[in-house]
């Protein structure tokens, strides 16, 4: 085999043709699975921006020692919101 696997002197055009992608190995889906709780397919990063912002501000504005207790209700509210979209967090 050549440098970094390229330029092998034993490779022929038939070897390269046999390595090309074949349609039988491709993964296809007829239609994406729909979630009745999330019909618009909102991504986790974009779901629940209000509760996410409140949760994040709480963690930014409190010391790590205090944040666990002070932000617990906001974390639970955000988790409940995410669960309402069908996300398991």
Automatic annotation (TrEMBL):
Keywords: Chaperone, Copper, Disulfide bond, Metal-binding, Mitochondrion. Residues 27-41 have a biased composition (Polar residues). Residues 1-41 are annotated as: Disordered. GO terms for biological process: mitochondrial respiratory chain complex IV assembly. GO terms for cellular component: mitochondrial intermembrane space. InterPro entries: Cys_alpha_HP_mot_SF, Cyt_c_oxidase_Cu-chaperone. Residues 8-22 have a biased composition (Low complexity). GO terms for molecular function: copper chaperone activity; copper ion binding. It is found in: Mitochondrion intermembrane space. Cu cation binds at residues 45-46. Its main location: mitochondrion. Belongs to the COX17 family. PANTHER family: CYTOCHROME C OXIDASE COPPER CHAPERONE. This is Cytochrome C oxidase copper chaperone-domain-containing protein. It comes from Kockovaella imperatae. The lineage of its organism: Eukaryota, Fungi, Dikarya, Basidiomycota, Agaricomycotina.
């Amino acid at each position: 085999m050549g440098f970094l696997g390229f330029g092998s002197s034993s490779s022929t055009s038939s070897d390269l043709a046999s390595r090309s992608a074949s349609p039988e190995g491709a993964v296809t889906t007829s239609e994406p699975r729909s979630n009745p709780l999330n019909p618009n397919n909102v991504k986790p990063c974009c779901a629940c921006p209000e509760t996410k912002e409140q949760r994040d501000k709480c963690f930014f504005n409190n010391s790590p020692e205090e944040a666990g207790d002070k932000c617990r209700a906001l974390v639970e509210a955000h988790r409940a919101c995410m669960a309402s979209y069908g996300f398991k967090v």
